[in-house]
Design brief:
186 residues; alpha+beta; 6 helices
Length: 186
């Protein structure tokens, strides 16, 4: 199947599964780079409820787009692994040919945190908890908590919340494998 078609289907599936179909023309450019409105410097406590609703809606749409980006990058990582003796890519340059419709600017929002061979992830729960990609920078939600999008070796994507900007404790509490290096396949 054509890789561009696979990318399109992954994005579309992600948007449909999220329960929210967002027009890419309004909220992202043709490379799935999130387009954000200017950030307000007004303290949240002084913003009226109508503005809070608008900010919350923008935050949700941004999160959906970032989840879609993560799905596309994750699918490309897995396709790369299948084409390379099941070895995961160690950087975005290695998968640039798999995602020609995504710009290099899109990859700057993400970090690859798993490496090694997919055959090393033998336990299904390990695949569900092994972080493949995560957002580099967290975003603060209206409730004051911080969020990042994570994708996992099994292909699913989650929006993860942390009480502070340090996600180390949250990752540990949730049992995530970050930087796992499974043994090379025989």
């Amino acid at each position: 199947m054509n890789k561009i078609l696979l990318n399109f289907l992954a994005v579309l599936a992600g948007l449909l599964l999220s329960g929210m179909f967002v027009s890419r023309a309004v909220y992202a450019d043709e490379n799935l780079n999130v387009l954000l409105p200017p950030v307000s410097t007004t303290p949240v406590s002084k913003v009226n409820s109508q503005t809070n609703s608008a900010i919350e809606e923008t935050f949700k749409k941004e999160s959906v787009l970032l989840e879609a980006q993560a799905r596309v990058w994750t699918m490309n990582c897995i396709i790369f692994a299948e084409d390379n003796k099941r070895n995961l890519p160690t950087n975005f340059d290695k998968i640039s040919n798999y995602a020609p419709d995504l710009s290099s600017a899109t990859s700057t929002n993400w970090e690859i945190v798993s490496s090694g061979n997919l055959n090393g992830f033998t336990n299904p729960s390990q695949k569900m908890l092994a972080v493949l990609l995560r957002e580099k920078d967290s975003r603060q939600a209206l409730d004051g908590k911080f969020v990042k999008v994570y994708s996992f070796v099994d292909g699913h994507v989650e929006l993860v919340k942390s009480p502070d900007d340090d996600f180390t404790a949250t990752e540990k509490k949730r049992g995530f494998f970050v930087n796992p290096q499974p043994p090379a396949s025989p």
